[in-house]
Amino acid sequence: MTRAMKDVMAAQGGTVDGDDRGTRLVASLSGTNLERAGDYNQRIVLQAIRFAGEITRAELAGITGLTAPTIANITKRLLDLGFIAEAGRRFGLRGQPALRLCVNPDGCFSIGINIDRDHHTIVALDLAGNVRARATRSDSFAMPGEVLSWLRAEIATIRASRAIDESRLIGIGVAMPDELGSVALPHRPDGYEVWNHLDVAGLVRELLPLPVHIDNDAAAAAIGEAQFGSGLTQSSFFYVLISAGLGGGVVMDGSYVRGAAARSGEIGFLPDPTAAHPGATVQDTVSLSALLARLESAGSIVDDLDGLSADMPVVRQWLDDAARSLLGPLVSINCLINPAAVLIGGRLPEALIDALIARLTPALAGIRIPSIAPVLRAAASADAPAIGAAILPFLDQVLPTESALMQAGRG
């Protein structure tokens, strides 16, 4: 640590006994060189084209604040890379008709995988966010060997189908719950904790030798929603993921907020003082595992989640209890985060998500707090973690993120 940095830290009242805080200061103030800035500007322009659908170079300059020559150079590079295409000319204005640009869906592809306690899903995604291939399998507490065998077969199917250009496949994303093998849920088998000690990225890389990105399932779902769903109109939101467990994700100003230990949004682990038994968490009520356990106790065996109806007495009671359990956490989220919306997604059938929202909306309206965000169904519900996982390689290589510009320690 330099003397100047120590002086700055001392002036701010910080300790100078170690290098930890100095390292954090360097990271937070990391600048960028021209090469990095050029790459980031290229990512920004591609994102602007993607969001707009079709756009002219002049409009890009106005949106991004970049000069016309810079836009010309960047769009030429993007055309040469195949990431964008010409979409014809815009007529009806004075002068020469302006050439419109759009994203080329075939510019690059990625694969997204969601591994959860009750199912696994794989999707192939193109640069425009279209799902080119999809497969899912319901399989409660599947062991790693079973999941990897299934993934191997599905990847072979995707490759054989020619649904994507494999030469333009840039990476794989994997979304899975934190502590996949540890959380106590009904019917968890002995030995399932093996998931906690696996190098999942290494195992997936053996199936397809590409960069592999691992993220929490709720984080991936929120990232997917930010990039290809409601995030196009809502830049700040809290995502509630109802799956075998319960997770959450925070998106502020278009960026996913991870927290100091990358565990932000863990709504499922919040204590639930409204539950009948002490020590309960919100996840003990608001999860598919909890709902299916209630149905099982009532003698109902569910083979297809889409067959669940809010008219079923057990489901109706669960919806009432789930709304009660979520009310306190959503009040806290509104007061602490002040999002533009609370989005509910996951594998809970859309009709039941809507029924849950219909209970939460009036309950929240009856509480006096400074601001209440509307509770809405997420745009991509059931496959959101897999789609979000597929976006991770795009964020790593072609779309803008803060880390793409501020890479501390590199240059």
Layout of strands and helices, then pairs:
Blueprint (H helix, E strand, L loop, with lengths): L2 H9 L8 H9 L5 H19 L2 E2 H8 L3 H14 L2 E7 L7 E6 L5 E7 L3 E8 L4 E8 L5 H18 L7 E8 L23 H8 L4 E5 H12 L8 E6 L3 E7 L2 E3 L30 H10 L15 H24 L4 E6 L3 H16 L9 E3 L6 H14 L4 H4 L6
Parallel strand pairs: 4-7, 7-8, 9-12, 12-13
Antiparallel strand pairs: 1-3, 2-3, 4-5, 5-6, 9-10, 10-11
Beta-strand level of the residues, as a percent range? 15-25%
Radius of gyration: 23 Å
Identify the strand order in the major beta sheet.
6-5-4-7-8
* General shape: globular
Q: Spell the H/E element sequence.
A: HHHEHHEEEEEHEHEHEEEHHEHEHH
Q: What is the β-strand count?
A: 13
Structural category is alpha/beta
Outline the low-pLDDT stretches.
1-31, 405-411
Mean pLDDT: 87
Number of helices: 13
Q: Describe the oligomeric state of these chains in a short phrase.
A: single chain
Largest pleated sheet: 5 strands, mixed
